[in-house]
Amino acid sequence: MILAIVFLPLLAAAIAGLGNKALGFTPAKLITTGALFVSCALSWPIFIGFMAGTETAHVTPVLKWIVSGGMDAAWALRVDALTAVMLVVITSVSALVHLYSWGYMSEDPDQPRFFAYLSLFTFAMLMLVTADSLVQMFFGWEGVGLASYLLIGFWFRKPTAQAAAIKAFVVNRVGDLGFMLGIFGTFLVFGTVSIPAILAAAPNMAGSTIGFLWFRADTLTVLCLLLFVGAMGKSAQLGLHTWLPDAMEGPTPVSALIHAATMVTAGVFMVCRLSPMFEMAPVALDVVRFVGAATCLFAATCGLVQTDIKRVIAYSTCSQLGYMFFAAGVGAYGAAMFHLFTHAFFKALLFLGAGSVIHAMHHEQDMRYYGGLRKEIPLTFWAMMMGTLAITGVGIPGLVGLPNIGFAGFHSKDAIIEAGWASGNPGVWFVGVLVALLTSFYSWRVMFLTFWGQPRWVNSEHVQHAVHDAHGHDHGHDHAHDAHHTDDAHGNPAQAEDAGHAPTTHGPSQQELKVGTGGYHPHESPLPMLVPLGVLSLGAIAAGFVFHGYFIEPEAGAHFWKGALAFREHLMHAMHEVPVPIKLSATVAMLLGLYTAWYAYIRNTRFPAIVAEQFSVLYDFLLHKWYFDELYNLLFVRPAFAIGRLLWHRGDEQTIDRFGPNGSAWLVQLGSRGAAKLQSGYLYSYAFVMLIGLTAAVTWAIAG
């Protein structure tokens, strides 16, 4: 069964990719989507089996892979509770994204290539989570990096998409260098790359030291920190996060698959998989906790002021990943995986819902040009509402006899915040509560700007183009990627795309211009896009209260995980015994964020502009994402380009070429010109040369 789950996506990717347009659009989509739904259908029984206690951890050998000296890296698929969680997350979201793409990419001319890339990415991610050795994990790790590069840059004719793909690839290479050094060091210390063998031997290395750079340090601390650098890159943690917002240049289904449910969670999965090793390195856990909390806060502040709907959700993803890491940093690995599980459903829902809004608004992604859409696209509105209720943590705390029930994020995010307090880290708890408030604010800001208020569509250049085309000036249907080749209404490179469906429009009346519609009539998405929204909405509603016991309840959790990760039962008990104000803190923060967003964007719509003007320095600081891109451009990008130009002009052109091939060619050319002067073609010239040669020979003979 596990072989079929892992290799069906690879087979489908090979058929669709090699067949490409010769295979045809529909067969390519049927093969790839069908393979993912089969993998999904096979994954859920494994997960349910671990919940029921009927399934046990096992390893399925595939083949002998690398045998070199003392290293034996067999290719084998490990299945335990941790793997089962990731299997259902990856295959479920990927299958729904494949189906969604039937509608979203319906007008794109390169559909077989797109679906092949999606399936290839899914295979690489499945290889990562089923790895039984660090080398196999690294194979999947690099595989998802390659596939993400291909998917982010899918619209390769668009310069911003090319730049975003390269940026993601380069930034992840920085993290992957740390991951490789961690793998090398782990093999050096333990003499094996087998994950079970490493985790079994980790306690014996506690307290030992190793030489690293110019000093000696705790062995496990060094190894865990190096491995965590890899997690920081793949999961977009503070410092190596800059690629994630720019990755929104790819098609929206890519954002839902890679940047919500799968690749960005690889770092969290790796830390939890190696959690027994991290437990032996408390300093490394302190770093994980600090980086997670800092990322959580940083990304939430950036999300407050973004106007691109996808970028708000991207920074939300970065922030939620920070939650997962600081949960792991306090030792609540079960809570980290629980939030990973629930986050996959509601964040994929939000991304796909945003894609449905963009589709309805004819490529427009700027929320300032939305408004009043809840009656125009009601199904999308309710799907986005479910996702917002989940991410903000709406629920009823189980106090004074009330049932402890709520949307997905209520159970998983609140558990992390409570774990921060229960572990004796009040600073981390405070950051978690503050970020909960910020999350509520920017999430409801998206909803209010998009679905409430008066329509502001008339100011959108994309909408104006749609209305203009509907007046008999239609220049042909835009393919999904063609929308990216022009600048938007704000003078910035276009960052939007649609599913290629022509909107329903008519000539604008004076009344329509007055109310801001401009004569444009948004339309609901097609069925292939709405079905995934409905299924993911169920996950956003029910994933929390249905599954929380298996992830974080002391007894049930220990029975479910069965050693797949380090499960601290005493911490889980302490989480349930925190004081009432601590239990209520996240809910109070959520309500404060909701009220503030309502006041700013419904009650008093001038309030945001007033605040931005009064705190202009802070507003610009957040709008420029804490100036990380500008700082990196100054410290790394410009010097790298300067060094490149120096080596190019001075090193390559003026040194290597000058004294190498170009210099040799110049000497040959010079000699040829001299020889050409001797080859005059006149007989007396040749006779004169022969006479000179004969005279020289006789002179030499006489002198000798």
UniProtKB/TrEMBL annotation:
Residues 65-115 form the NADH-Ubiquinone oxidoreductase (complex I) chain 5 N-terminal domain. This is NADH-quinone oxidoreductase subunit L. Keywords: Membrane, Transmembrane, Transmembrane helix. Coiled coil: none annotated. It is found in: Endomembrane system; Membrane. The gene is nuoL. Residues 469-490 have a biased composition (Basic and acidic residues). Its main location: membrane. NCBIfam families: NDH_I_L, PRK06590.1.
